[in-house]
Design a protein that fits this description.
Shape: elongated
CATH architecture of the largest domain: 2-Layer Sandwich
Number of domains: 2
Largest sheet: 4 strands, mixed
Helix content: 25-40%
Bound molecules: iron/sulfur cluster
Oligomer: single chain
Mean pLDDT: 89
Strand order of the largest sheet: 8-1-10-9
Order of helices and strands: EHEEHEEHEEHHEHEEHH
Radius of gyration: 25 Å
CATH topology of the largest domain: Alpha-Beta Plaits
Low-confidence stretches: 251-263
């Protein structure tokens, strides 16, 4: 079961990939607003930089390069937390309040409550959460503070081409559908908070065609780990029971005298 979201008032992004020019103003604006440090990178022959999300980089532009008949074409993809309607990270998190849903449907987090177990990393279908030097979760929080104050997220504000449209999720989807856009994330995982208008199949952008929460994480968290803990406390209980009913273990007198060199 997903946590409750009011779909009528849910806020979100519509990312129209056909409009993106790869300027990365969104990356820079996010760093500036969230006071995130620069990431040290090296040139690997691509304009894509950095090559992955980091604890100091909540959104980035993925460069998808294609060569055909000697011509190189680029597609740009804004990678970030999807603010899933059915959020694997929230489902597995054992620390209440470390990951939480806001009234607008945002999946926000509280570092003070994060216990560094990293379950959310394994449960995320999009490989989003990162851990920094503080060993706490780090990801896009959809500028929850700005949104609460009636502002649009910093990345959307900085985007010069309106690739990143922020607003009422249902209205954004309705206008994109009317414009005959091919949408990704409208219904997956109870609807993603970040819906994409794509120009090709999801796989071309590195997206899973049917995203789902890996069941193995629930098996580990809900079955195997509790059994292991039960086994541990079972052993302690057995030792205590032995002590109470039979008494402390007596050391063999013979062994004692051998160790003392009295043979
Ligand atoms: S994309 Fe990953 S981190 Fe973001 S809400 Fe979904 S499961 Fe959580
Ligand atoms: S919504 Fe805010 S936190 Fe998320 S990527 Fe944009 S600027 Fe960064
Ligand atoms: S700011 Fe807008 S146009 Fe520039 S890279 Fe980001 S999404 Fe693309």
């Amino acid at each position: 079961m997903a946590d409750t979201i009011n779909q009528g008032t849910r806020m979100g992004f519509l990312v129209d990939t056909s409009r993106c020019i790869g300027c990365r103003s969104c990356q820079v604006a996010c760093k500036q607003w969230n006071k995130l440090d620069a990431d040290k990178t090296s040139n690997k022959g691509s304009f894509e930089n950095p090559p992955n999300l980091t604890p100091e980089l909540y959104n980035r532009i993925k460069f998808i390069e294609k060569e055909s008949s000697g011509e190189v074409t680029w597609r740009f993809f804004n990678e970030r937390c999807m603010h899933c309607g059915d959020a694997g990270c929230m489902k597995v998190c054992p620390s209440p309040g470390a990951l939480y849903r806001t009234k607008d449907g945002i999946v926000a987090h509280n570092k003070d409550k994060c216990i560094s177990c990293k379950y959310c990393v394994s449960a995320c279908p999009f490989n989003i959460p990162r851990y920094g030097a503080d060993d706490k979760i780090s990801k896009c929080h959809l500028c929850v503070g700005r949104v609460d104050g009636g502002l649009v997220p910093a990345c959307a504000k900085a985007c010069p081409t309106e690739t990143l449209k922020f607003g009422n999720r249902s209205k954004l989807i309705a206008s994109a559908t009317a414009a005959k856009k091919t949408l990704y994330g409208e219904n997956d995982l109870m609807g993603l908070g970040v819906v994409y208008a794509l120009e090709g199949p999801p796989e071309q952008y590195g997206l899973p065609s049917s995203p789902s929460i890996p069941m193995s994480i629930f098996l580990w968290k809900d079955v195997i780990k509790p059994l292991g803990i039960l086994g541990f406390w079972g052993s302690i209980g057995a030792m205590l029971l032995h002590y109470v009913t039979i008494g402390p273990k007596k050391v063999d007198d013979d062994l004692n005298s051998k160790e003392a060199g009295h043979e």
